[in-house]
Design a protein that fits this description.
single chain, alpha/beta, 2 domains, nine-stranded mixed sheet, binds NADPH dihydro-nicotinamide-adenine-dinucleotide phosphate
């Protein structure tokens, strides 16, 4: 079928690369390009010899001319951006210049503010339309599969959805007192920001970790979870018609929260640069450098994740609830691709999203969030490629 350029060589990229190689009918060729080429070469070495032809390249994804040169040389059908959110706009610029389809798993963020808004990327809509190319935004698990689940619920089970609760439970244990499951800088920015939820067309803001609930997760059991802001609330608030409230909850263990509080109190989670021995450093970036590399957690993480959405709404005049979720086992993911479940649950949907664009099923000029496309082929692919989902038509609700 075609050729994909994968940018980034971290935990998520490792899963994307494995999954593309498993799906060689669609991904006949891939190029892994990142800042540190040795990481791309190490991935290639693990998977070389299969049906998918793998090449590697060095690229600074903040340098648009460098990206343009690479894209012109490789001529991919799509660029899969699994670097960091800071690179999104630069990669989109390069895609525009070369008329190449684009996909990512996290919305653009400027380095100096942690806002999690789509406005910068949505501003590219007209230019992508005119260029005749597709940009698919936020195609990991959350955002990503949560949007596909929402579109699926809307299409098959509701006339109108009034409430969505997105529940993200990671019951994995890596044995460290404190570590993050994906890029520490992005993770800590997300959880130390103020919380918010969408209600009656407006944002309601909360203090970080102010709202705590307990939920009895299928296949896991009861866990504490906290309301966070999360980027898909913004797009779902616009794309799910009639929606009144959307909230996002994530589970955290006591040890994680205690460490985070201390780190915050002493200033280590700040993104304001400080001067240290004559050199400017960002405390959070320094913290990242001393924390365990998320990629190293794979072999030691045991337990499961459960991520899903609970919907409330009306069908044929009757009130209805519906819960759809995926359970993923850290050790099984590690055995299959050498990554823990957080990277796995992000990398699999990224491969599927790229496949949707490459096969034409999700191809439309412009900039789109996942819930704007037909969810059915994506849902089928989730079952096929390692993230099977389960449904409950009478779930416990978050009170
Ligand atoms: P990692 O930190 O493990 O990997 C990021 C990779 O990007 C690294 O290989 C890094 O290079 C590379 N990179 C960073 N800056 C540049 C640059 N300027 N040019 C080229 N390459 C660069 O992150 P993850 O794999 O954990 O996460 C990847 C993405 O997935 C992030 O955007 C994250 O927010 C998103 N994500 C989305 C989720 C979802 O469900 N939607 C869940 C989890 C993550 P180097 O190796 O040199 O440092």
């Amino acid at each position: 079928m075609g050729r994909a350029l994968i940018i980034g060589a971290g935990g998520v990229a490792n899963v994307v690369v494995h999954k593309c190689c498993q799906n060689s009918e669609v991904f006949e060729e891939i190029c892994i390009a990142s800042r540190t080429k040795s990481k791309c070469d190490a991935m290639k070495a693990k998977l070389d010899g299969g049906k998918t032809k793998i090449t590697t390249a060095q690229v600074d994804a903040d340098n648009v001319p460098e990206l343009v040169a690479l894209i012109k040389d490789y001529e991919p059908d799509i660029v899969i951006n699994v670097a960091l959110p800071y690179q999104d706009l630069h990669i989109m610029d390069a895609c525009l210049e070369t008329k190449t389809n684009y996909m990512d798993t996290a919305n653009y963020e400027p380095e100096d503010t942690a806002k999690f808004e789509y406005k910068w990327q949505w501003a590219y809509r007209e230019r992508f339309e005119k260029a005749g190319i597709t940009a698919l935004l936020g195609c990991g698990f959350d955002p990503g599969v949560t949007g596909v689940f929402s579109a699926y619920a809307q299409k098959h089970y509701f006339d109108e959805i009034s409430e969505i609760d997105i529940l993200d439970c990671n019951a994995g244990d890596h044995g460290y007192p404190f570590a993050t499951n994906f890029n520490p800088e992005i993770n800590i920015r997300e959880v130390s920001a103020k919380g918010s939820y969408w209600e009656n067309g407006e944002w309601v803001e909360t203090e970080p970790m102010e709202i705590k609930k307990v939920y009895n997760f299928p296949e896991i059991g009861p866990k504490d979870m906290y309301l966070l802001h999360h980027e898909e609330l913004e797009s779902l608030g616009l794309n799910i018609k009639g929606i009144k409230r959307i909230r996002f909850f994530m589970t955290f263990g006591e040890s994680y929260l205690r460490h985070l509080e201390v780190l915050k109190n002493v200033g280590m989670t700040s993104i304001e640069p400080i001067n240290f021995e004559g050199k400017e450093i960002v405390p959070l970036q320094f913290l990242k450098a001393v924390l365990p590399d998320p990629a190293s957690l794979g072999p030691r993480t045991v337990g499961k994740t459960n991520i899903g959405c609970i919907f409330k709404g009306v069908k044929d005049g009757e009130e209805k609830t519906y819960y759809i979720y995926n359970v993923c086992d850290h050790q099984e993911c590690y055995k299959e691709v050498g990554s823990q479940a957080i990277s796995y649950t992000t990398g699999v949907p990224a491969m599927i999203g790229a496949m949707m664009v490459m096969t034409g099923r999700w191809k439309r000029p412009g900039v789109y969030n996942v819930e704007e496309f037909d969810p059915d082929p994506f849902m089928e692919a989730l079952n096929k490629w390692g993230l099977p989902w389960k449904e409950n038509f009478n779930p416990d609700l978050v009170e």
